[in-house]
Amino acid sequence: MRTNNHHENQQPLTSAIKAKASALGFDACGLARATALEGYKPVLDQWLQKGYHGKMAYMANHFAKRLDPRLLSEGARTVVVVAQNYYPPVHQPAPDSYKVSRYAYGKDYHMVMKKKLKALAAFITELAGEHQHRVFTDSAPVLERSWAVEAGLGNTGKNACLILPRKGSYYFLGEVITSIEAEPDAPFSKDLCGKCTRCMDACPTSAIVAPGKVDAGKCLSYLTIELRDRIPEPYREKTRGWIFGCDICQEVCPHNRHASPHNEKELEPLEPFAEWTDHQWRSCTREAFNRSFKKTGSALSRISHDKLMDNISCADEDCR
Prior knowledge:
Helices cover 34% and strands 12% of the residues. It contains 13 helices and ten strands. A hairpin with a 2-residue loop joins strand 8 (208-210) and strand 9 (213-214). It is globular, with a radius of gyration of 20 Å.
């Protein structure tokens, strides 16, 4: 007997999922068969062995789950991958002022993406019947960029960011891992970088140690966000004014000449990113930090007020 998990013709189901993803405001959607990513195993293993995950000890956990979605969601047969543009319609006041990574301008993307992913999962239920599923967006041991490649969305660049052809790399990724069976897309296989090394050449800390390999311990995004401690001395004068995250390797990428503003209301820049001057950033009190970032659902609430102040002091040191 056929269950709702089996579809007489899987292609209409795939097309319907993609149409719904587009209606929800996602900019790209692809599907992949839920199997073990054996080809990525040696790459991940070597990255961990070399200690390129810095102090992010959690990256070494759940190794098997990172490679096999069937260990994350029981009965998984399909990985639906979506991409959400986050390139902002406006940029911070002055190019030579303190800089925050564009992904953090609006509300925390985890919340924005999760809401839309749950709506997509609910649509799949309407369409195909009850299905076991879980939704993820940078919140579990899921190799998101690898799945985006497997689902045909694009390929990883030399800076390890996922590049969508003719769209660029300013995109969040999310997944619905589901027990339904749908027609998968062909994996993306085209090299999008060629001989270009602009991202590697532009990185102020030489964090891109080889094409596609980033030593997180040197990366400004890690140093200004993930690292809870003060930024170490060797890097304090190399932040180039970045006080939360870094977009340098994306700014120099030729693919991002195609970047166009997103249409997601909840990702519109909050007041500090649209209006604050350097003086306002420098004089931000703990109370102002809580009011402007923690209470507004900003991604900046991921760091402490003390960490922000240290990041700002590094930016000042770098400008001397």
